[in-house]
Amino acid sequence: MTLQIDDANRVRTLILDRPDALNAFNEALYDATAQALLDAAADPSVAVVLLTGAGRAFSAGTDLLEMHQLATNPDFERGEHGFLGLLDALVAFPKPLVCAVNGLGLGIGATILGFADLAFMSTTAKLKCPFTSLGVAPEAASSLLFPQLVGRQNAAWMLLSAEWVSAAEAKDMGLVWRVCEPEDLLPEARKHAELLAARPISSLVAVKRTMTEPIRAEIAAARERENACFAELMGGPANIEALTAFAEGRQPDFTSLPEGW
Q1: What is the sign, positive or negative, of the torsion defined by CA atoms of 92, 42, 103, 182?
Q2: Which class for 73: exposed (0-12), middle (13-18), buried (19 or more C-beta within 10 A)?
Q3: In whole angstroms, what is the distance from residue 94 CA to residue 80 CA?
Q4: pLDDT, tens digit (0-9, with 9 covering 90-100), for 209-258
Q5: Residue 261: CA atoms inside 13 Å, Cβ hemisphere, count?
Q6: Which residue, 42, 49, 80, 172, has most beta carbons within 10 Å?
Q7: Model-level pTM?
Q8: Contact indicator for 120, 104 with CB cutoff of 8 Å
Q9: Cα–Cα distance for residue pair 143/114, rounded to 1 Å
Q10: Which residues contact 253 (CB under 8 A, 6 or more apart)?
Q11: 174-211 exposure pattern, b = at least 16 Cβ within 10 A, e = fewer
């Protein structure tokens, strides 16, 4: 099992459950999470989805060992939904999405907050957008949603630097709404999710639609730009050096790449 699903008081809780891999998304977890969002969207008994992680991580992003296979093995078998399918489900999700960042969040474990209607974060959690350290481009429309959420310079720092951002910094930026002590995180997130879930689902859906509809075309355009850049860079010299270094347990060295890389 890669995803725990629990229903209570019209809130469907999704718990990313690969704790030994820091809840990194492999194809199976991408598929399970995307399908869970699609199912929750279609289920008239679900008003709100609460997303969190098991263990000490929220999500370490895409499983880099599997990404290495994707980059180097043309016969690698992809999942039914995969990364792009999860993004499709997030973009289209019509009900409130509450995220409870219980531990470290990298890559999609950070950029998913662009789709959160409310985000709570543990004081011990931290976030990183590791794209430049992997030799790739932004993802999940973060090049659009992060500047809108946190301002251009905060977004530029997160997307360009590949440095960690603390819970306090994320709160100051506006990337998360509330910061809680670890033991208070889920109770606080659940309290607010259940408050929303007590409202009429039809009204919740209408509010979210009116908020997201104006930027839907912009999100699609941002994803198209990001995907084109990602496709150009993935498997390139910088990305291969980063993934090889990860597989070998060393720091990448980008200083000897071909000119321009």
Answers
A1: positive
A2: exposed
A3: 21
A4: 999 999 999 999 999 999 999 999 988 999 999 989 988 999 999 999 99
A5: 21
A6: 49
A7: 0.94
A8: no
A9: 10
A10: 241, 245
A11: ebbbbbbeeeebbebbbebbbebbeeebeebeeebeee
What confidence tens digit (pLDDT) does each residue in 92-110 have? 999 999 999 999 999 999 9
**Which pair of tokens denotes residue 115?**
């789709």
pLDDT category at 76 given cuts 50, 70, 90 is: confident
The answer to whether the beta carbons of residues 60 and 26 sit under 8 Å apart is no
Q: How many residues does the chain have?
A: 261
- What tens digit of pLDDT does each residue of 203-222 get? 999 999 999 999 999 999 99
Determine whether 106 is exposed, middle or buried from the number of CB atoms within 10 Å of its CB (0-12, 13-18, 19+): buried
Report d(CA 234, CA 203) in Å as an integer.
42
